[in-house]
């Protein structure tokens, strides 16, 4: 059971972001960003990603929440030592914003647990001093 309680810490989540200036016309006054997520399973058991939750805050403090099953239409099973990666995106009203959240996983014995995703920044280059 000790192994089970450590599961949230044994799932490593890495995030890389990019601004996508070509995705939105200047007239729309919006800012498009991509984020590339890599999930690595450092546990000794397989886990399945069931749900995602995102809290998105733009530079004006406007908050959006996104929740639902899987990621990009998938609920992958990640074996011990393996990685799962995907890309998705967000559109903001401001050139700077922040995202944070969690993934909900299920272990081999049906135990549900959440792994937090630390706050990361979405920003147009040179918009932060």
UniProtKB/TrEMBL annotation:
SUPFAM superfamilies: ApaG-like
InterPro entries to which the protein is assigned, alphabetical: ApaG-like (IPR050718), ApaG_domain (IPR007474), ApaG_sf (IPR036767), Uncharacterised_ApaG (IPR023065)
PROSITE patterns the record matches: APAG
Family matches, as Pfam families: DUF525
Residue span(s) of domain ApaG: 5-129
PANTHER family from the UniProt entry: OS05G0170800 PROTEIN
Annotated protein name in UniProt: Protein ApaG
Gene source species: Planctobacterium marinum
Gene: apaG
């Amino acid at each position: 059971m000790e192994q089970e309680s450590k599961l949230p810490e044994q799932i490593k989540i890495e995030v890389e972001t990019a601004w996508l200036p070509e995705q939105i016309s200047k007239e729309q006054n919006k800012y498009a960003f991509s984020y590339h997520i890599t999930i690595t399973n450092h546990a000794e058991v397989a886990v399945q990603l069931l749900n995602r939750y995102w809290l998105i805050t733009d530079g004006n403090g406007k908050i959006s929440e996104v929740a639902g099953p899987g990621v990009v239409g998938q609920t992958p099973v990640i074996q011990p030592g393996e990685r799962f990666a995907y890309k998705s995106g967000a559109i903001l009203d401001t050139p700077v914003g922040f995202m944070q959240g969690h993934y909900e996983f299920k272990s081999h014995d049906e135990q549900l647990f959440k792994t937090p995703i630390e706050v990361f920044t979405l920003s147009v280059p040179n918009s932060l001093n």
